[in-house]
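HUMAN: Mind making up another protein with tokenized structure?

ASSISTANT:
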Amino acid sequence: MSGKTVVLGGSGAMTSACVYDLYRTSDFDEIVVADADEKNARRLVELIDDDRVTFESVDATSADDIARVLDDAAYVVNGLPYQFEENVLDAIVEVGDLTGVDLNAFDFDAVLSRSDEFAEAGCSLWFANGGLVSTIALGMVGCDEFDDVEDVNFYWGMWRLLSQTTAGLTDTVTYEHDPNVDERARWEDGAVINDLPPFSQERTFEFPDPIGEQETYVISHPEPITFPKAPIAQETNVDRIITRGVWHDEWTEYERTLHAMDAFDADPIEVEGGTVDPLEVAQSQVKRAGRQRDAEWRAPEELSSETEWTPQTILSSEVTGTAGGEAGTAVYHFEQPFPFFDGNEISMMREYGCYVGVPLSVTLQLMAEGAVNKDGIFVTETSGMDADRYFEMMEARGFELTEEQTPPKQAATSA
């Protein structure tokens, strides 16, 4: 495993852990933190203090500048905001012969339609990466316990205060609650049923502490669209798939308030001779609070002093089916470590984001060593990834996989 690796947006909240994990666990010759945020990028490089890790400025609004940064690279991680996706894809094709992973999970059809173009350019790109790799892998190991599967329920438990956020996360959470978004979906009997309302499809689910038992509801995640493509889902004849989530009470109250005040469809209002969008005003204040809170890097024990719990995301799957003629349920939980950055001073959201950043590093290394060998653009379900191997690599980095099984695996392996 050698070569130059470029991490686009590498000092962000979700990607800093990718850079740190590549530094700790990979043999790449050079790891470039490519970012417009020079201050935080240089601070991350200084924290790591390894000659292999360097900083380079990049203008994400320019495909040509992205291509400049990617020149002579063998590997790329795309952690830039999704509005720059087309520029990134154009730059990768222009440079050619690149292997990479992509955090973006929007515009599936448009991105996947470029797969042949990528293959012709000698490029491989693992799309919809990050935390989605973990949930899909949870579904895979759950389905593997049964001969036939009725339901695959995915759960995202996102437990952080309202002011523990980034601009991107704030937009994403509110997008997932937007009544005008038609991407909240479930898969049933071979068909996608979309345009489900916000806060619908409620189901009680118990996460590990500190989240505990919560009322979850459907969120606009792609698992119901993509998981049917997984070989194990097809082998076990999965009937139904849905993804639900829950946020800390502060976030739930904020999103319900936006609905109650009709912020998503409100016309601009006049304020002191100008006009403002009520939703943009509310979002801007949450983002400002997040920026102020996350600006200072601190020791891990000082990052969330007002809570008795550590801000975190817990990912879970709940699979029901039959094995050896006996009905059962397999529940898996996947929890992130704290602290991840070896006790170094860091920001809260960079610690929080390790559940996204580390999968980017692990999957890129799987591609580099040939354990995943696909051309063009693909997703986890079609990657050929060994889910057990993935979890072994994640657990070696401090993540924890726990299982609740009723009845025992494969009905005690057919007794």
The longest strand covers residues 148-159. The two ends are 43 Å apart (CA to CA). Residues 152 and 319 are 5 Å apart (CA to CA). The chain has a mean pLDDT of 96.
